[in-house]
Amino acid sequence: MTPGQQAAQVALVSPEDVDAAREDARALGMVDLGLEPVTLALAVKARRLAAALHCDAVDAWAIMQKERDSLMKYVHQVQPPAKEPSGVPPATVYMIPEGEVHELPGEPGDESQDPDFPELFPMDGA
Predict the structure, then answer these.
(1) Distance CA 37, CA 19 (A)
(2) Domain ranges of the chain
(3) I need a labelling partner for 109 at 20 to 30 A (CA). Which of 14, 67, 95, 101 fits?
């Protein structure tokens, strides 16, 4: 398992955990406070994690919350971009509405080269 999968295993509940939360809470002797199913499933998971780690359920809940916080950057997609910007400015794009005539640098008959557009073909006519 990757570290992210391990964090998810500790911090998150599955749909099966949510479905079984009421029965599991009763089996663990937890008092029914009318919690929402997902919250109850998280509380059951915290109780089980506390038993596995030999700690208090509040400490287990804190561990789960820390792991959930570390996963949120992936859930909300705030991880750094896959490729760092190169620092090169984007290419110049000319958008001209149809039917309008505009004189642009590098018009046919004009031998000057547009400074924003690199010369792709030789201008000598060869």
Answers:
(1) 8
(2) 3-75
(3) 95
| H-helix or E-strand spanning residue 28 | none
Distances (CA, A) of 22 to 37, 40, 57, 62: 8, 7, 18, 22
Give the integer Cα–Cα distance in Å for 26 and 47.
12
Tell me which residue has tokens 């046919």: 108
Q: Is there a contact between 50 and 57 (Cβ–Cβ < 8 Å)?
A: yes
Task: Decide if 28 contacts 44 (C-beta within 8 A).
Answer: yes
pTM for this model (two decimals): 0.56
pLDDT in tens, 94-125: 777 777 666 655 555 555 656 666 666 555 65
How many Cβ atoms sit within 10 Å of the Cβ of residue 8?
17
